[in-house]
Amino acid sequence: MHRITRPICLFGLILLLSGCTPALYVHLLNATGELITVSKAQSKDITTIAVGTAADISPFQLDERLLIRTSKHLWSYSMRDFYQPHWPLALWQQHPGVMRTYARVDSRGRIYALAPPHGSEQPREIPQPHGFPMSPRNGT
Q1: Which pLDDT tens digit goes with each residue over 46-86?
Q2: What's 99's domain CATH number?
Q3: SS3 letters across the chain
Q4: Mean pLDDT of all residues in the chain?
Q5: Quick check: is 5 in a domain?
């Protein structure tokens, strides 16, 4: 009986975990010409990204707002608008439990979609899909 219980429990755990919603990350390249800080309206998590570098922005809920600050600007974006329906599935990098998109933000706060890297390549510029580049909802 013990031999049967363990595989059944393991199979049940796999089914349970495979039904979980994956964490959504944005790998954001800072092309603003200034140091930026990235945060979410409902979180205390802050990510600082130096000029010309990129960082993963932690998982998002679709009802959150993405905030990007420079020394002169504060840009705000709706995550619902960011992900639905704009981002084509082909531009998602998928791993178990994680989905990642690649983007860059320019000096006017516009966010451009990038193609995910293949192997050791860097994310690359592409013709922009519908809805991109995204402009901030408000800005200063």
Answers
A1: 999 999 999 998 766 777 888 999 999 999 998 777 666 56
A2: 2.60.40
A3: CHHHHHHHHHHHHHHHHHCCCCEEEEEEEEECCCCEEEEECCCCCEEEECCCCEEEECCCCCCCEEEEECCCCEEEEEHHHHHCCCCCHHHCEEECCEEEEEEEEECCCCEEEEECCCCCCCCEECCCCCCCCECCCECC
A4: 81
A5: no
